[in-house]
């Protein structure tokens, strides 16, 4: 399980660091995407920070569930944006969301601690 977790976290890290830097550096496609969504460019910056921060959290001890939950929630928003505003395909966001869910499952022992519950 450890190797599977590491592999999935590497995939998520590569994807979200790349996407986050594209958003923060103002890649033309990202600027146009957030213009189309209509929430303003501040949301592009916020999303980029969340993506890079989530990728970093994936590698901190006992923070994998928190990180994967954050990244997965971001992908729920991305899927909704694709389905209702952007089109044409939400498949990459769905795949990243499923990988995030798999990381949560692999580290489910952290859930109680993350939620502040005692065993």
Automatic annotation (TrEMBL):
Main location as per UniProt: membrane
Subcellular location: Membrane
Record field: transmembrane: 42-60, 65-84, 90-107
Annotated keywords: Membrane, Transmembrane, Transmembrane helix
Domain of life: Bacteria
Membrane topology classification: Multi-pass membrane protein
Classification via InterPro entries: DoxX (IPR032808)
Annotated Gene Ontology cellular component terms: membrane
Protein name per its UniProtKB record: DoxX
């Amino acid at each position: 399980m450890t190797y599977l977790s590491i592999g999935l976290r590497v995939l998520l890290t590569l994807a979200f660091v790349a996407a986050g830097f594209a958003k923060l550096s103002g890649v033309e496609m990202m600027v146009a995407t957030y213009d189309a969504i209509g929430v303003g460019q501040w949301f592009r910056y916020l999303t980029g920070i969340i993506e890079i921060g989530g990728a970093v959290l994936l590698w901190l001890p006992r923070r994998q569930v928190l990180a994967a939950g954050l990244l997965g929630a971001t992908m729920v928003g991305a899927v909704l944006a694709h389905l209702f505003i952007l089109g044409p395909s939400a498949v990459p966001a769905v795949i990243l969301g499923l990988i995030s869910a798999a990381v949560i499952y692999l580290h489910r022992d952290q859930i109680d601690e993350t939620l502040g519950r005692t065993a």
